Each structure stands twice: as C-alpha cells, then as structure tokens.
Amino acid sequence: MEKHILLRGNDVPNIHQYDVYVQHEGYAGLKKALGMTPEQVIDEVKASGLRGRGGAGFPAGVKWSFIPKNEPVKYVTVNADESETGTFKDRLIMETNPHQLIEGALICAYAIQAKAVYIYLRGEFWDIAHQLDQCIEDARRHGFVGQNIGGSSFSCEVYTHLGAGAYICGEESALLNSLEGKLGQPRVRPPFPAQKGGGLYGEPTVVNNVETLTNVPWIMVHGAAEYKKFGTEQSAGTKLYCVSGHVQKPGVYELPFSTTFRELLYDICGGPSVEGRSFKALLPSGGSGPVVPLNDQVLDTRMSYEDTAKVGTIIGSASLIVMDDSVDMTWVASKVTKFFKHESCGKCTPCREGTYWLDKVIDRIMAGEGRPEDVKLIENVAKNMAGITLCALGEFAANPIIHTIRQFPEDFNRHVAAKTETRPAAGKKTAPAAGD
Amino acid sequence: MAILNNPKYEDRIQWHLSKYPDKRSAVMPLLYIAQEEYGYVSQEGILEVAQLCDMDPTQVKSIAGFYTMYSEKPKGRYWLQTCTDLACALRGADEFHHDLLAYLEIEEGGTTADGLFTAEHVMCLAACDKAPMLQCNFHFMENLDLAKMKAWIEEKRAELEKQSK
C-alpha cells in the first residue's frame, strides 16, 4: 500500500548520503530542469497537480507562477518550522532524505530565478539543521549549490536558519519576519510574499513546505503524468500521514491520497493500542482542523483534500491524533486550547484575548464549574475571533472547543451537569464569569 | 569571557553574518551563541549581539523575550523540556513529567540544588510517535519512562561527583 516518493530512505539504505543519493536519481531532476526554461518547469509542476503540503493545499506551480519575472532579486524560503501539534513528517524527510529537499528547493529556485534559498527550521531541529548544513556543503562540492549550478548559468545559495521556539513562525509572513531578525508576527497582506514588497527583504518570495518541495525532483524525473497516477483527482500524489495517540503503531506513513482512514488506522497502524478499547475521535490535521468522531463514515473516507471536506473536516498537514473511548473530549479541547493560547503571538487583539478567554472558560468547565450558558459564551468569543485576525491562528484557536461541543455534546454536558448538581444555593457567589 | 573577539566563536559569527543581505537577520543565530557562552542570554550578550547586528539593544532584548528557546536567566547544566502536548499526553507524558519533577524534587521550571537539572513542560516538539519524550539542551531523548530517566539522572550526578573530586 505504501508508495515512497519522499520516504525513499525506506527503500534505499543511506540515501541521506550524497553518494548514495546520486546513484538513485539524485540531482537528476535538477539537471533536467536546468535543460528546460523556467516557464516549462513551472508548467510541469502545475500539470502534476502538486498541492502545498503545509496544510492549505494551494497548488505549488500556481504559487510559483505569481512571482514577477522582471524583478532582479527573488528568494525561496522553505518552511521547516513544523510545529503543529501532532506533526512530525518534515523532520523525517530531513533526517532520511535531505538531498531530495535541497534538490527540490533548487528546482523551485531555478523556476522563479531566485538568488538564494533559506530553509527555516524550528529551533528544536538543532541536530537536523547541522546535518542539512553538511548536505548543502556536499552538494556544493559537486557543483549543485553556489555558482553556475550543474555547469549552467544559474547560481543560487542555500542556507539553513534556526528559529527559536514559536509556533507562529510556521505562518509564512511571520516566518519571513523572523528570518529578517524581527519578532515572528504575521504581516498585513497584501502585499503577499510573492509580490514586490511582501516577501523576504521586500523581494518576491516563494514559501513552500518541506514535503511540497521534496516531491518536485521526482516529478521532474518521472513527469507530471506519472505523478498524477497516484492519489485522487484533486489530490495528486502521495502524502505523509503522521499518526499519533491511541494506535498500536504510531509513526509516519507515505500513502497515496486515495487511501482511506480505515486502511491507515487499522491495516497499517494495527487498530487501537489497548485491547478491548475502540476508536472514539480523530483530529486529522493536528490541533487546527475540526475534530470528528471515528465512525464508519469517517473511516471509509479517503484521506484527500476533497473527501475529508465531505465529512466536515480537513486533511491539512495530515497529522492524525487518534483517541480511544477512554478519552474525555473536553480534556482534549482544553489541551489544544492551551496550545493556541500559549502560541498566540499577541499581535491581534481578538486572538490574544480570545484564546485567553476560551482557555479560562474551558478551565472552569473542566473544574466542574461549567454553566449551560457557557456554550453561548464560547460561541460568542469564537465569532469575534473568526476572520478578523492577520493570520489563521485566531480562526484555528476556536476550532477545538467549538467542534467538541458540536461533535461530542455528551462529554461537554457531563462537566456542565456535574456543576449543576453541586451548584450552591441562589444568592451565593459562584465561580467568576468570563468578564470578571 | 565574551563572544566578541573570542576566537572560539569568530568563524561562526562571521559565517552567520555572511548568510544574509541584512545583518539584522543574524540576530537569532548570534543569540544562540551568546546563550552558549553565558549559559543564558545575559545583558552583556545582548549588548554584543546588538553591536554585531547593528541593532538597538532593546530590539535584541525583545527578540530574546519573544522566543521560548532563549533563556533570560541561568538554567541547570541539563535543561529538560518535556512535551506534554495532546499527542504526547495521550501516551502518558503528563504523568511522566509529573513524576520527573517529583524525582528531581523541583517545581515546574525549577532547578535542582546541585545546579544540574532544570525541568519544565513545553508545547509540541514534533516527535509525537516517540512519547514520552523531552529535549535536553536542544537534543531529543525519546521513548522514555521514569526508570530510564532515573538511570540517566544518576549517571549525570555520578559524573558531577567524579569531576568535583
């Protein structure tokens, strides 16, 4: 069932080493691209249907085509900030197949005629960044990084840059600010990163996820048509699915988008981790995507962009956090809400204040002090965060709690009911309201 | 010592300054170097980084304060950060962290009396399939349990004792 376009280390031992990589099509995609015009490279990536793997699923070739041709200075920035709760795929690519990422980034750089690539890694990927630096030097020694790449007239530098612990820097405009030595907070758009004034140092910039770019060398070597044979109509290729939580075999699995949740969670991951327990709920895209009950309808859904939308959620970064029937979903909502409260960068008031209030209310509910009217209060806070912040964190932050109430009302009501039973006599002061 | 005019860091500092068209971009890597030298981001370190990056010290301080991996106060020799986020918590990370603090006899974020260990919990570290896990001075330790941690802690304590003899 598994198909390795990205996790080729599973099939070829030591492919992280330059010598092994070049023996297995390594840098062949870049060489092929250098023999084409930049426009032809973009057209091929467009034709492959490759979509951004960071979560949003935006077509990669289309993104590249937004870069203005007449600007003299352009950049590629690789988003390796991987910080969404439950996501650990980019790390595996960089550990086991780093040259394919470097090659993919260089093909993108050629396609938009960028002068440099910056790989922005989350600060915790300290060891990985040092390995990547070594790979970049190996590639440089063989003429694939630096001046006149592969003997062509194209020159490009590749650098790593370590963040220092901020989820928000996975948001592309915050990432660019961080790379410029500013606070990692989102920018006002437009101008977008692809436009003059919106990218790195104000220059047009492509920001792509690690997984997205690592697909590109394979597409160049084997062609868009071959790539489209994997996956579904609107979700071409394979995807790295990160599975964590209550399964027997958690890990990262590379599968075509046409695979169902059941095939992954039962056939590959071996079902629930504790005998006698059954699956209860799934967060398919880390903390950001809507939680769903793990029922037959969801299990038989293909893990593609279009199919997951039909069951009211997203595949996003494909960070599957699986929960069995021992889990209290209100506790889950509380955990994820705390994550967003901690990671809110503080720039936009609705997110900074909203995450604080959501956390406060859910703490109260968890402490058995919930009130029936808290549902309305939460919905009100969520409504006042949606669509009015500079980035999506404000939107995502309300997701866990709102969808828990919707999908698992019994878990939620249990806490509120517990309160009702122990409510003090009227007239006595109860727990502080959100506004106190 | 200092990081300025220190042969130990000269090459690395020059390398980071050369990577970017704007010196300001080197503020993050240089703050790591300052932290390495002083054990935390000290006031001296901030002034040196500001000079190197051509920035105002206040701006450097705001960067150091924004990101969680820069510490503005001294830590133990081993800075243990356990992930207790959802995916890890489903595999016992909360209990693991609680027991670790109890074994070290410290509160959340505290440092042991011998100055060896600081322990705290952090958000997702992208190692969800290998929980419980933590990062120790930015290197990952995975698939842990308390027995493994106890053995490791005692090993480090014995090393310290040997050094002080």
In terms of quaternary structure, the protein is heterodimer
State mean pLDDT of chain B (0 to 100 scale).
96
Radius of gyration of chain B: 18 Å
**Relevant CATH superfamily of the largest domain in chain A:** NADH-ubiquinone oxidoreductase 51kDa subunit
DSSP strand content of chain B = 5-15%
Total number of beta strands of chain B: 4
Looking at the structure, the CATH topology of the largest domain in chain B is: Glutaredoxin
Q: Into which percentage range does the β-strand content of chain A fall?
A: 5-15%
Straight-line N-to-C gap of chain A: 55 Å
Helices and strands of chain B, in order, run as: HHHHEHHEEEH
Q: In order across it, which strands form the biggest sheet of chain A?
A: 6-5-9-7-8
What's the mean pLDDT score of chain A? 93
Taken together, the total number of domains of chain B comes to 2
Structure description:
The complex is a heterodimer of chains A (436) and B (165). By secondary structure, chain A is α/β, with parallel strands linked by helices. Chain A has three domains: 8-227, NADH-ubiquinone oxidoreductase 51kDa subunit (Rossmann fold); 238-324, Ubiquitin-like (UB roll), CATH 3.10.20; 329-422, de novo design (two linked rop proteins) (Up-down Bundle), CATH 1.20.1440.230. Chain A is 43% helix and 12% strand. Helices cover 49% and strands 11% of the residues of chain B. Chain B has helices spanning 7-19, 27-38, 43-53, 57-66, 86-89, 93-104, 146-164; strands at residues 78-83, 117-122, 134-136, 139-141. Chain B has two domains: 7-66, Arc Repressor Mutant, subunit A (Orthogonal Bundle), CATH 1.10.10; 78-164, Glutaredoxin (3-Layer(aba) Sandwich). With 165 residues, chain B is an alpha+beta fold. In chain B, β3 and β4 (139-141) form a beta hairpin. In chain B, α2 packs antiparallel against α3 (43-53) and α3 (43-53) packs across α4. Chain B is globular. At the A-B interface, β3, β5, β9 and α14 of A face α2, α4 and α5 of B.
